């Protein structure tokens, strides 16, 4: 009996009340561009299908853009650098990997106050009306492979008693248990929309600069959630997530631009996300447009 491939869980939309809050100068932020992360490959080698784009690529949306993004470029090992410059004749070994110490880090903030108050999609495992900001933490776990299912061979290596794993039955032979193990999954992170900036300036048509916009390719090497506020039922309302991202050599620019263009489809039919509100519920206008 073949095991069905796991479906990606889609990050719930953010409540419009929190996205439409006006800044100190009074300018409405409804159209403000927010960053996001996306897997570089469909399924990420974990067998996932579905997702917002329907092609097995997971996506994390930012509620707020980070206040600072810090990148670091360095060659941390002078001996390896010298070994690359002065190679042994006939040696075909790849010495690049140990030198990949370029990193970028940022901190994100998530708030699910309104979803907890006004309800959500009760059929979703990551319903923010039930688990609050844990919905976004769940998305990070999925994005980094923590929620991936171990196959039978992997579970045998991880289990204390392998006989238990071997007797689980043929229908779940390839999906034994969640891994709980973070994985190095190649992905992109985009912090802006250079095309929108270019179109706002009638004198600019520099598409080459659009391809060089602020973005990174690599994998999340470390992420740390900090829960900062809870309900009386100990459901987390707000959390900050610190992200450390290790850069990898960038794929061809055409590949990067194709993925970036794919993401411009999000939010339009048929690429829409489930509403965060209960069916038939309309939030007060004073909250939607404060």
Give the gist of this structure.
With 290 residues, the protein is α+β, with helices and mostly antiparallel strands. It is 24% helix and 19% strand.
Structure explained in plain terms:
Helix content is 24%, strand content 19%. With 290 residues, it is α+β, with helices and mostly antiparallel strands. The protein has two domains: 16-21 and 31-75 and 98-148 and 183-288, no CATH class; 149-181, no CATH class. The protein has a seven-stranded antiparallel sheet with strand order 2-1-7-8-9-4-3. It starts with 15 loop residues before the first helix and ends with a helix.
Compute the CA-based radius of gyration.
22 Å
First and last CA, distance = 54 Å
Strand residue percentage: 15-25%
Low-confidence stretches: 157-162, 168-176, 284-290
SS elements, strand count: 9
Oligomer: single chain
* Sheet with most strands: strand arrangement: 2-1-7-8-9-4-3
Query: In which range does the helix fraction lie?
Result: 10-25%
Main beta sheet:
7 strands, antiparallel
* Inertia-based shape: globular
Task: Specify the structural class.
Answer: alpha+beta
Number of domains: 2
Sequence of secondary-structure elements: HEEEHEHHHEHHEEHHEEHH
Q: Roughly what is the average pLDDT, rounded to an integer?
A: 75
